[in-house]
Amino acid sequence: MIIGACLWVPKTLWNDLGGFPEWFHTLAEDMWICVLARLSGHPVRAIGESGFNHRVGHSLGGGKITGDDRLVTSRQRRAFSERNKSFVMVMTYPSPLFQLLFPLHLLLLTLEGAALFVMKQDFQLLQGIYLACLRSLWKERRRLLGMRRQVQTKKNISLMRFFSAFQLTPYKLRMLLRHGLPQIK
Known about the structure:
- The chain is mainly alpha-helical.
- The chain has one domain (4-184).
- It contains eight helices and three strands, in the order ααββααααααβ.
- The protein has a three-stranded mixed beta sheet.
- It is globular, with a radius of gyration of 17 Å.
- It starts with 10 loop residues before the first helix and ends with a strand.
């Protein structure tokens, strides 16, 4: 995926893909457009340097590595991120792997929320991020499944090629192993 602050999309492709859903809000919109482009058979490429200096975490706080090599994020950022990444999975992941991966995603999300609750003794983390994500998925299920039907009809890529851009080890796990448990403000 290409970070949204540095994402360049030809206007014709943007129009073909339909841009960002109005209700999507913020965070993971770059994932949405990149995954949608890949699913439609368009390449997604990163260049070496853009010359653009993005201030990660400026608008919602967090999502960045501090000087002492720790990850800092905010509850609001985590809530939007988990919700929108889950929405992207529902709408774009091709079958039959969607039916296998999405329940696994929900299980891991629930376990992550439970583990953070136990470690930090903070019910607001569990409720405001993880349970909120599950509630949003349930509340928006008809809209998401309707968009999924639309998106999947435009699929122009093989299952193997679609998933070739993804890494087996989840990004959050790699970040946890590298930087430790995030500080959540």
